[in-house]
Amino acid sequence: MTSTQRTAARGSLPAPPTGPEASAATTTGSTAAGSAGIEAVGLTKRYGDKTVVHDLSFTVRPGTVTGFLGPNGAGKSTTMRMILGLDAPTRGRAVVGGRPYRAHGAPLTEVGALLEAKSVHPGRSARNHLLALAHTHGIPASRVDTVIELTGLTEVARHRVKGFSLGMGQRLGIAAALLGDPATLVLDEPVNGLDPEGVLWIRTLLKSLAAEGRTVLVSSHLMSETALTADHLVIIGRGRLLADTTVEEFVRHAGTASVRVVTPEPGTLAELLAGPGVEIAPGARGELDVRGADSTRIGTTAAEHGIPLYELTPVRASLEQAFMDLTRDAVEYQARTSAAPEGAAA
Ligand SMILES: Nc1ncnc2c1ncn2[C@@H]1O[C@H](COP(=O)(O)OP(=O)(O)OP(=O)(O)O)[C@@H](O)[C@H]1O
After folding, report:
1. Would you tell me which of 90, 121, 297, 340 could form a disulfide with 46, CB atoms 3.0–4.6 Å apart?
2. ipTM summary value
3. How buried is residue 264: exposed, middle or buried, by Cβ count under 10 Å (0-12/13-18/19+)?
4. How far apart are CA 297 and CA 274, in angstroms?
5. Tell me, what's the pLDDT at 65?
6. Would you give the distance in Å from CA 288 to the centre of its chain?
């Protein structure tokens, strides 16, 4: 989504009632029993003659962090906005805890959302912003201090939001999402703008929220980071479902690209392994990079011929590469040359 579209599409969450049912927000960071997750059934969104979300069905279960992945423009934000009742689906439906978002009496205490950082009054302090939000939703002021502490904003809580860095703005957005102690969290790119310490913090926070039984849906276009945080992955491209799988399964399928072998007899071992489908490349320090033969076969061959092995390491294809392979045909704006992604070995 471009910044213009983002601004055009921006909206505040539907105002909830402030009656007695709204004041049922817990203040203790209690467990989220009763959360029934998120279900999307045949979700479809068309803008003019362009269908940006196509017949998308998936389930986000309580007690897990689900990574919602896709390249830029895949339809992640649009899908999240439909889940949150901010955009009406052209077809299909989304329910949170068994009901459409708008059917919840006190949405902020049911679903916490981060859609865009800094969509707050810039002249207000972080604390006043949260207090105003708490007040309109019947949430006690004590909860404001709880979420300020939880998100590491204590030092800057009385500072005006307009001086906030992108990372501090993200923390404030997450504090607002947590304000109602909701059973479900929907976070659009929460690591955006966070430094490495912030990324680690959000990873730990999301895992602990899921461990409390909450439903956590978090979007990203970074596969390797998401694999460290999420239990489950829903991957989309051009609005279509490409994969709905566990992280473990995705990592396993990413497969083993090669085996690194260190031996004092590389020439002999290479000759013994040579054959159809096997590629052997010598490394800079005398090691062998073997493709087309797994570590069992290499180890067995070496043992049968009394060749010592000092190292036998399967080198996994990078998760980022596997993700790019999966979404290649679904990337809206393909770069002319694609450089190999750095590191990111699983
Ligand atoms: N209000 C709108 N009107 C027209 N087209 C839109 C609108 N909102 C989004 N789109 C288009 O829908 C497609 C999906 O956009 P969306 O922002 O949902 O993708 P995304 O996966 O969140 O991307 P990113 O990671 O870049 O934020 C894009 O092609 C975008 O241009």
Report:
1. 90
2. 0.96
3. exposed
4. 12
5. 97
6. 36
- Amino acid identity, position 142: S
Distance 340 CA to ligand 1 centre (A): 26
Copy the structure tokens of residue 147: 């979420």
Cα separations in angstroms, 306 against 269, 288, 290: 10, 17, 19
- Matching residue, tokens 């957005």: 173
Question: What are the tens digits of pLDDT across the range 264-295?
Answer: 999 999 999 999 999 999 887 789 999 899 99
Distance CA 216, CA 50 (A): 29
Q: For 154-169, write each residue's pLDDT tens digit.
A: 999 899 888 888 888 8
Q: What is the pLDDT of residue 296?
A: 94
Count of Cβ atoms closer than 10 Å to residue 206 Cβ: 22
The reported pLDDT for the residue numbered 255 is 65
Q: Whose CA is nearest to atom 12 of ligand 1?
A: 52
Report the atom number in ligand 1 closest to the C-alpha of 2: 31
Position in ligand 1 atom list of the atom nearest CA 72? 26
CB 114 within 8 A of CB 193: no
Give the C-alpha separation, 143 to 134, whole Å. Answer: 8
**Where does ligand 1 bind, in terms of residues with CB under 6 Å?**
1, 5, 8-9, 47, 52, 70, 72-78, 221
Cα distance from N-terminal residue to C-terminal residue, the chain = 29
pLDDT beyond 90 at 327 = no
Task: State the DSSP code for 238.
Answer: T
Looking from the CA of residue 45, the nearest atom of ligand 1 is: 12
**Alpha carbon 320 to chain centroid, angstroms:** 13
Nearest residue CA, atom 1 of ligand 1? 9
